[in-house]
Design a protein that fits this description.
By secondary structure, the chain is α+β, with helices and mostly antiparallel strands. The chain has helices at about 10-25, 40-50, 65-70, 75-85, 105-110, and strands at about 5, 30, 95, 100-105.
Length: about 110
């Protein structure tokens, strides 16, 4: 397993994800997206793996949500661009295992990863 956890140090759900993997002795790499955002390729791979409409990835409770005006963007491509530009708008954690990925705290899925 090659687990990557993308989130922020202040996110409670991200901390729960880290604890989940630590308790099972599974090594992971944590990436604080507020300091080190995903590269364009990485971001694209995560979006493909999630297979979720891009608007469902937006954290409407984020401090930046209102300031970003992302809710008013009509085009999904514009939403995707805005999410890439400001990745703190993503629901976290984003957990990636190779070509698989989840968004949010999903232990029921992680348990089945090989």
């Amino acid at each position: 397993m090659n687990i990557q956890i993308f989130g922020t140090n202040k996110c409670f759900e991200t901390k729960k994800a880290q604890r989940f993997f630590k308790e099972r002795g599974i090594k992971f790499q944590f990436v604080d997206i507020s300091k080190y955002p995903m590269s364009p390729g990485e971001f694209g791979n995560v979006l493909k793996a999630l297979k979720t409409p891009v608007r469902e990835l937006v954290n409407t409770k984020s401090k930046d949500y209102e300031r970003s005006f992302i809710a008013y963007l009509a085009d999904d491509e514009a939403v995707e661009d805005k999410l890439f530009e400001n990745q703190t708008l993503l629901i976290t954690p984003v957990v990636r295992n190779g070509k698989q990925a989840t968004i949010g705290f999903c232990p029921e899925i992680w348990k089945n990863w090989d």
